[in-house]
Structures are given as C-alpha cells and as structure tokens.
Design brief:
With about 375 residues, the chain is an alpha/beta fold. The protein has 13 helices and 13 strands.
C-alpha cells in the first residue's frame, strides 16, 4: 500500500538538536548548552506572566499591538515595520518562506546557526555554504558566492556557535555588495551582550534599505527562552509580505506581557551584560593557557572552545557531563573538535575550568 510521500527536500533536512539538560543516565545537570541567562528571568516579567494567567480563556492579540509599541519605544523603531514570531527562529523561517523557493539559493556561513539550513531546505531552496575566516564570517566569501539565483543571505552577528563578530564596516560592505534583489537577514539574537560601541548598524540599515531584515529575540539576555518571543524589523514591503504567511497567534498573552515587562528592566539587562563580560573574559583567559585548547574570541554569552591537542572535545564533553555540566558538542555542524560553553555563574565557570584542567593533565 502506498503512503503520502514527503517532498525530497524535506527528507534532506537534518533535524535541529537542542542542548542537553540531562546526562545519559537521566541526571539533571547544570545546563551550559543552550546559552540561557544564568540569572533567570526579571522579577517584573514573572509577575506580568502570573497576572496574564487570569485570562487564559482569551486568544492573544494577533497584532501584538502592545508589544510592538513597547519595542518601538525601546529601540526607536516604527511599530508598523515590526514582525513577530515564535522566537526569532520563526521569523527566520518566514524570511526564507517569503522570499525563496525551489530553484533559489540561500547563503550562510559554514559555522552558522543550524536553523538557516533547515529554513532553506524547508522551502525547497538550495543552501549555499561559504567558508569562514578563522571561524568568523568572511564577507568576501559571501559576496563571491552570490549568483542570479541568490534570494537570501543569513548572517548572525554575533555568530552562533562561534561567538565571532562582524564590525559595522564589514556589515555595511556586505550590504553594499549585494544586489538589491537579495534579502540580507541580520540575526542579532545576542546583540544585547554587545557594548554600545560594537553596534553593527543593523537597525539603521533596515530603516533605510529596502532589502535588510534584522531579527532579535527575548530568549537570551531577557531570560524568556521558554516563552519563545522573537521579532524582526525591515522595510514596509518586506514586513507586509512576511505577515501574509505568519501564524495568527505566535505566542501567548503571558509571553507578550512578560516580554514587555522585561524590556523595562534595564538593571537586569545591565547586570547580565556586566557579568557576561567579566566571566567570558576570565574563562577565555583560562582556556587559552591550557595546552591544546583555544578560545575563539566571542562577543556573545558563550565561548567556543577548540581542542587542538591531546585532549579531544568528545572526551572533554563526557568528562564535563560526568561532573554535572552539559555543554554543546557540535560534530553535526562540522565542529567535532569544539565545545560551545555558555557563560554561567561564577562558580560554574570555575568548576568547568577545573574539570578541563584536570582532563588536559590526564591526556598529556
């Protein structure tokens, strides 16, 4: 008996693999595998979420008017040029689904966010993977890969899983080199961890250019990963087209209320950024003095640790898991020699370094 046949491009998708929260034997471990905020969620956001529970019988506002107004006021953008979705992941999928299809090409870097290839293949487009420059985005490689079939270019800045960063000048040069018919998607999931002087100018580009979409999320510094609130900013034409395929109710009333409250807690955001800045630098220094280990310079809330000596990433991953720490080993993304490690609390980072120091000694 025959059965419905999935499209061949769907079967070519490697499913997304989330970061682990438990060990192989089911033990709960410290989760340094998903780049979550070690300080949790702002108190005001928790309170807003609890208050919203009094209205669970109501559909959320499909137009997200209050959230768009709050975003517009906070970031100085126009509310009617915002789109929103179930995390920035959905906004990335909307970009691919609106502007590409079978026969088209979408470009992303070799060590880019795993969702880019999934979003590309989901719509039947062809992923074009370009080489990096020592794990960082190579603007020249991207521009060299553009053809008449290119419809979208995905660039994460800072990049995930490498943590590398492209300057304002590099982003401007990339945009200037792209045909106006190609949509440049700047995925800024980790942008709130940047220092003000590191702003890549993405929002300004999206305000003035007709082919730039900036995406952001509440899952990282705002501590709302479970609520899946993402958004994007672009020209009216891009936003209008994307809205045509957007799900009408992307997230719950509680999620919207919590996101609005989180935007208003500047102290929580600054505390998170300051802690991350201090401990990311400390952790990177400790890694770089261990024989055979190298920390890729990061601007995000994680560090990609490369294992280039006797100690392998797989052995280190298992040792850290046994010690109670889940990290992200990424052989499926071409990084069998690397672990992406979220910046956690000060005690967690000290413990991780102690484990790695011991394993380096054992391997030597």
């Amino acid at each position: 008996m025959s059965a419905p046949a999935p499209k061949p491009w769907i079967m070519g998708i490697a499913p997304y693999v989330p970061g682990r929260a438990t060990s192989e034997d089911g033990r709960k471990v410290a989760k340094l595998s998903s780049n979550e905020n070690p300080f949790g969620t702002p108190d005001a956001a928790r309170a807003a979420y609890r208050d919203a529970a009094m209205h669970l019988e109501r559909y959320p506002d499909a137009a997200a008017v209050d959230l768009r107004s709050a975003l517009a006021a906070h970031y100085g953008v126009e509310a009617d040029r915002l789109i929103y979705g179930t995390g920035s992941d959905e906004v990335l999928h909307l970009a691919a689904g609106t502007f590409a299809g079978p026969g088209d090409e979408i470009i992303h870097v070799r060590y880019g966010f795993a969702v880019y290839e999934i979003a590309t293949r989901r719509v039947g487009a062809t992923p074009v993977v370009v080489a990096d420059r020592d794990y960082a985005t190579d603007v020249d490689a991207i521009l060299a890969a553009v053809t008449e079939r290119t419809k979208v270019v995905f660039v994460a800045n800072p990049n995930n899983p490498t943590g590398t960063y492209s300057t304002r000048e590099e982003i401007a040069r990339l945009h200037a080199g792209l045909p106006s018919s190609v949509l440049l998607v700047l995925d800024q999931a980790y942008t709130e961890y940047l220092e003000p002087e590191d702003d890549d100018g993405g929002l300004e580009l999206a305000r003035t250019a007709s082919n730039v979409l900036v995406t952001r999320t509440f899952s990282k510094i705002f501590g709302l990963a479970s609520e899946r609130v993402g958004w994007g900013y672009a020209s009216p034409g891009i936003i209008d087209a994307m809205h045509r395929i957007r799900a009408p109710f992307a997230f719950s009333i509680g999620a919207q209320a919590a996101a609005i409250a989180a935007l208003g807690d500047a102290g929580f955001v600054e505390r998170s950024r300051s802690h991350n800045r201090e401990w990311r630098a400390w952790f990177s220094r400790q890694i770089d003095v261990l024989p055979g280990l190298r920390a890729v310079p990061s601007k995000a809330n994680f560090v990609l640790v490369l294992f280039e000596g006797a100690l392998t990433a797989e052995v280190a991953y298992k040792a850290l898991m046994a010690a109670g720490y889940a990290t992200r080993w990424l052989p499926g993304q071409g990084l069998p020699h690397g672990l992406r490690i979220t910046i956690g609390t000060d005690s967690e980072m000290r413990d991780v370094v102690d484990v790695l120091r011991t394993e380096v000694g054992n391997a030597g």
